[in-house]
# Entry
Amino acid sequence: MTTPATPTRTTAPLPHWETIPDDLPAAIVEVKRALRARIAASGRSVADVFAEVEDRIRVEVADIGATLARGEQVWPVLDYADVEAGTIAPELVAAVQRRGCAVIRGHFPRERAQAWDRSVVEYVERNRFFENYRGPADDFFGSVMSNPEIYPIYWSPAQMQARQNPRMATVQSFLNARWTHTSEGRRWFDPDRDTMYPDRIRRRPPGATSGGLGAHLDPGCLDLWMTEGYQQHFRHLFDGNVAAYDPWDAAYRTEAAQYPGSTMCSAFRTFQGWTALSEMRHDQGVLHTVPIPLAMAYLMLRPLLDDVPADSMCGVALNQAFPVTERWHPLLLEALTPIPDVQPGDSVWWHCDMIHSVAPVTDQQGWGNVMYIPAAPWCAKNEAYLESVRAAFRAGDSPSDFPAENYERDWDGRFTEADLTAIGRHGLGL
Ligand SMILES: [Fe+2]
# Structure
């Protein structure tokens, strides 16, 4: 069902669908036609606008290549002590904004992170997790190994202690502040208060062989073009005004409707992130990103070019991660860059719209252990999701964004409400 188009500032209003359209191919054809017409109303063709995006991105791809050729780190690396003291060099803050990603060295002391790693093992073994493991419940991180690499565990003391640690709040505030939270006369989120977004643990053992994860995006799928909130968020791209598009402006983002699906994230995350619980070398099947925030403009406009079938969004579909491929996005994949080597207690962060992948590895050297903890600032969207998070926390269930595996319901040693600090209570909206 098409809902009536909202009046916009331009001459070409956009149809939008706040829930999944009944006839999806027809809706794709319709929205693409409307987007092309709207860009044409700017006086430039879609091809011209896309060429401008490509030119800007080529500059970034070349800079990333040159940085690597000089033997320098592409990923900005910040010391936690500087984040806490507010003494990060302005060039480094600018680098975080340019690359859209960062490593925080010593976010937690090494011993603290290693103790958390041991405590996760103790928690799952005491509760006979491996004996009772029923296999991957989704195919997102699916694996044929009998022991999981992704533990669908959310409420261990280790995870909760990290989530409510003041050092985590300090880093989340710093990262949230890279975004513009007030624009268009509205305040979209509170950068100094995070909502807890419980996610899983990965523990990949030495000797592991893994096919990795292909390059993809996590913030949405067809809804990125088809719901009103996202259309407004990307309004400058859809007006053909690439220079005005700011990947760091949260406008309309924290109230955009999303299409449900197994890969959907209900929260608005300024940055996705994880905290390392083991050493990881950059060549051992680690996270890569395309460290170019403007790549989102390429991804959003590419389906509007003439060589893409009328009912295609370059492979984007419901219920699947947004794929980034050689066929449609070769320029972007040239910039795929691994994280630097990390130590236990370092954390790794990337802008929520940033393309990322996990490299394949054969006979992995050392462990590959992380706790996924993002930055999800307080906003209407995140507050709404918190209600189900609180219920899952109290019951020991899997949060509603994840498969309902509910392993921890009766587990001994699960983190409880009495263990929450003020930050933890605040993060859960208690
Ligand atoms: Fe992802």
About this structure: The CA atoms of residues 73 and 189 lie 32 Å apart. The chain has one domain: 24-427. The radius of gyration is 21 Å. Residues 1-10 have pLDDT under 50 and may be disordered.
